[in-house]
Inverse folding.
């Protein structure tokens, strides 16, 4: 059973009061998220990521298509016991303290008494909220609110987590803590579905991604397959490299470019056609020492920009007649 | 909307309307039943409280005045109190001094003798005087004051004086001056009464006034008819030396055709040699005969 | 159904921490307490004025609380988006509406109870200020438990106002909700005049329309038995029962409407 599954999930809005025109927020999204994986839902701003998350939480209703969580249709209230949701820029109740908010949400799951207190305390610990937990939420900074948001999403030990921009508002230390938290959750067996426009987070955390642009899915799959594991070359850093050996390597075509890093220390660019171990053994035989050997790949950012640039811009369902006539 | 939600809404709406109907049948809000005092007695205070909603409040008080008059009239209480009528009318006209209908119809309500009304011609005149102060060039007010003197008080001197005052005002109808003269000279007559009630009928703004005027005119017609019937009876008596036994005799003698009925269709009574209006007729009781002065 | 209970308690907690509420309650307490001062001003201090003022204060401040908090009940959550966190929990949308209503109803009950207690305290104090012969001619004793019937109907009236405010709050902004709720409350008090429209209006259609409105619009005038209890006039038990039933059925109707509207909304 998939953790999350959508079939041609579509959402149209009507924009304008006097002559409403349709606006396609999401167009026939079909994805699936396996249990236990960390899935990145990527796309530029306005691509439809938040719309998808809201459809999954049934905060909005789809125009057509279906979605399932843990095998049950999204409206099923029982499933909500097993999931957690962190909305984008979360706002909770100003007048409550962090503890009271967590206790309130915990009570909605049916936790009470000592069990509730234990959960509130331990999850606030886990997200790094200390003594501030007794302060009213109106006094919290954005980063602290984000942590509270994560705490309330995991207070019921969910099997599937939905995070909408979980890193937003956090400083680098905070981002690292949350990254580690997500990995901890994955290790516990949670499925984590998160949307982001920060690609480096996706690269470090996700096994699979989907890329959305203009309301449409433009790519999805394992990170490694998407990037086609296109090794575009190798970078070899060596010391003790004599000029003669370098010149020979260049002439033979083993080295495309050499960047000096220090005395007799070079970063060498190798073409894809050449097996790097051959070049390595040749140069080592000539007396040089290996410092590092790194494959050069297309980054997710390169891939992302390429996919998004090709995505269609037109979000309306039909071009108006007057434009066509002209 | 799901089917069950729709059904629930329909059922609850029916419940709401049904309970409101029950409430209505039991006589409405309890507060209305004991409305025998007004919280704000003073018109001046009310004017201050009303802020900019005077006209609207005047309408509200007018509705209450009419309702008070109507419901007291219809009630089974043997001792009908119209206590709130004048205060309500006073409040109405203080809030909206140009509320002509309130003055005119209010005066008619106030003049009506018991049990159909409080029988307070003095209050009616006071109300109309107030209207006249608010709008001195309106001929209907002095005419109505004259009318009250004429019809309810039989004070024909006063009535004629007021008719004259009305006749002097702009747009007053031409028959006012001759009417004043006739009234002064002869006192009351059915013809003058007809003229006055006809004027009310022609200018009536509401159904109540119209039907009241028609009723009065019918009463005057009935009085004429009774005169004719009595004349027939007397003629019969003169001719045959004895009273007729019933309409049969009069018909056979040729004085009558068919059974005489009043303008509402109720048959006249003939008993013990006298003709009279049937007590069940809507025209009963007939008004007092206008008194001739000479 | 514990979701309803917890949501209700959350509403209650929020109102208790709301400064607007405090000022209203404080003002009401002041007014009730000060009513005996007003009584001193009129020559021959009249117990009737104090009772009238106290009951009116309870009704008016209750109304203000019901409207001020009621109009924001749903709107605030949607506008500030705290509803996202709430609806992702195992809470059905109708439980949200019912819970919010129950919370405000609870708040109102507590507030009315406090104001009633203050009221009776003032009455008890005033009772000691009058000589025996004056007390003997009062239609009802100063500390009259019969007034609780008027307060009970005031509570039902407030529950209906709250339901109205909540209903409007599911789809319109606070200003509009407040205007509509207060407007309907005013019209509902002139309800009897709607019924008597046909006595003064000639047009049949206008009169029928007014009559239809009389049946459909909430009849707030029916809840007003303040005059009766102050003068110790009889109030039939059947009247109390039918009027209370009317209020509760209307509340149920409005809540159902609110649930339907709220249930199909997209929270953008």
């Amino acid at each position: 059973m998939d953790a999350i599954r959508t079939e041609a999930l579509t959402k149209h809005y009507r924009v304008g009061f006097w002559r409403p025109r349709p606006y396609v927020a999401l167009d026939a999204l079909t994805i699936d998220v396996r249990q236990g994986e960390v899935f990145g839902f990527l796309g530029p701003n306005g691509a439809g990521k938040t719309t998808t998350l809201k459809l999954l939480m049934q905060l909005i209703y789809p125009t057509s298509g279906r979605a399932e969580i843990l095998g049950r249709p999204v409206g099923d209230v029982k499933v909500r016991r097993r999931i957690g949701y962190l909305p984008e820029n979360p706002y909770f109740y100003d007048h409550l303290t962090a503890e009271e908010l967590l206790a309130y949400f915990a009570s909605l799951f049916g936790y009470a008494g000592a069990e509730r207190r234990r959960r509130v305390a331990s999850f606030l610990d886990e997200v790094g909220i200390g003594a501030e937990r007794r302060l009213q939420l109106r006094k919290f900074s954005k980063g602290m609110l984000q942590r509270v948001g994560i705490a309330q999403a995991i207070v019921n030990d969910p099997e599937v987590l939905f995070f909408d921009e979980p890193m937003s508002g956090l400083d680098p230390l905070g981002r690292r803590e949350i990254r580690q938290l997500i990995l901890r959750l994955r290790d516990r067996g949670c499925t984590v579905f998160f949307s982001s426009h920060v690609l480096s987070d996706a690269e470090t955390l996700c096994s699979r991604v989907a890329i959305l642009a203009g309301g449409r899915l433009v790519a999805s799959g394992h990170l490694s397959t998407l990037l086609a594991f296109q090794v575009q070359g190798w970078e070899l850093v060596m010391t003790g490299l004599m000029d003669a050996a370098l010149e020979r390597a260049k002439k033979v075509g083993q080295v495309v470019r050499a960047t000096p890093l220090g005395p007799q220390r070079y970063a060498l660019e190798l073409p894809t056609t050449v097996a790097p171990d051959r070049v390595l053994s040749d140069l080592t035989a000539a007396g040089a020492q290996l410092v590092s050997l790194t494959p050069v790949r297309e980054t997710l950012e390169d891939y992302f920009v390429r996919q998004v640039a090709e995505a269609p811009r037109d979000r309306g369902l039909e071009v108006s007649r007057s434009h066509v006539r002209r | 909307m799901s089917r069950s939600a729709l059904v629930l809404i329909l059922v609850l709406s029916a419940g709401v309307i049904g309970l409101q109907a029950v409430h209505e049948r039991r006589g409405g809000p309890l507060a209305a039943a004991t409305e025998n005092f007004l919280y704000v007695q003073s018109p001046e205070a009310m004017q201050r409280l009303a802020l900019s909603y005077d006209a609207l409040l005047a309408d509200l008080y007018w509705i209450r005045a009419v309702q008070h008059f109507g419901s007291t009239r219809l009630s089974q209480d043997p001792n009908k109190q119209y206590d709130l009528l004048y205060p309500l009318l006073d409040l109405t006209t203080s809030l909206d001094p140009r509320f002509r209908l309130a003055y005119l119809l209010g005066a008619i309500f106030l003049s009506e003798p018991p049990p159909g009304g409080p029988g307070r011609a003095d209050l009616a005149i006071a109300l109309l005087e107030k209207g006249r102060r608010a709008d001195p060039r309106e001929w209907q007010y002095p005419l109505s004051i004259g009318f009250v003197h004429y019809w309810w008080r039989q004070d024909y001197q006063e009535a004629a004086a007021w008719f004259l005052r009305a006749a002097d005002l702009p747009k007053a109808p031409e028959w006012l001056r001759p009417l004043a003269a006739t009234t002064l000279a002869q006192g009351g007559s059915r013809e003058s009464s007809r003229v006055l009630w006809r004027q009310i009928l022609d200018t009536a703004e509401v159904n109540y006034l119209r039907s009241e005027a028609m009723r009065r005119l019918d009463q005057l017609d009935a009085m004429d008819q009774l005169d004719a019937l009595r004349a027939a009876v007397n003629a019969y008596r003169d001719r045959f030396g004895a009273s007729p036994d019933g309409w049969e005799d009069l018909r056979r003698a040729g004085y009558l055709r068919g059974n005489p009925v009043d303008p509402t269709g109720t048959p006249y009574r003939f008993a013990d040699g006298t003709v009279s209006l049937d007590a069940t007729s809507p025209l009963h009781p007939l008004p007092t005969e206008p008194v001739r002065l000479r | 159904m514990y979701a309803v209970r917890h949501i209700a308690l959350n509403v209650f907690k929020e109102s208790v921490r709301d400064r607007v509420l405090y000022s209203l309650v404080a003002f009401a307490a002041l007014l009730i307490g000060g009513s005996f001062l007003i009584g001193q001003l009129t020559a021959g201090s009249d117990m009737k004025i104090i009772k009238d003022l106290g009951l009116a204060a309870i009704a008016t401040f209750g109304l203000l609380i019901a409207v001020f908090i009621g109009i924001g009940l749903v709107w605030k959550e949607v506008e500030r988006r705290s509803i996202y966190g709430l609806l992702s929990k195992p809470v059905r949308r109708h439980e949200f509406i019912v819970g919010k209503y129950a919370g405000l109803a609870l708040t109102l009950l507590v507030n009315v109870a406090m104001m009633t207690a203050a009221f009776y305290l003032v009455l008890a104090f005033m009772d000691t200020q009058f000589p025996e012969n004056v007390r003997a001619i009062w239609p009802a004793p100063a500390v009259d438990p019969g007034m609780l019937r008027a307060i009970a109907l005031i509570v039902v009236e407030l529950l209906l106002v709250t339901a109205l405010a909540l209903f409007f709050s599911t789809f319109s902004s606070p200003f509009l909700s407040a205007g509509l709720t207060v407007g309907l409350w005013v019209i509902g008090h002139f309800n009897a005049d709607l019924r008597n429209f046909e006595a003064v209006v000639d047009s049949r259609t206008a009169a029928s329309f007014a009559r239809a409105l009389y049946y459909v619009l909430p009849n707030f005038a029916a809840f007003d038995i303040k005059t009766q209890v102050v003068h110790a006039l009889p109030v039939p038990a059947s009247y109390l029962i039918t009027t209370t039933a009317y209020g509760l059925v209307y509340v149920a109707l409005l809540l159902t409407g609110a649930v339907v509207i709220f249930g199909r909304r997209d929270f953008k």
Notes: The two ends of chain C are 27 Å apart (CA to CA). Chain C has a mean pLDDT of 83. Chain C touches chain A at residues 2-3, 6-7, 10, 13-14, 17-18, 80-92, 264, 266-268 (CB under 8 Å). Residues 2-263 of chain C form one domain.
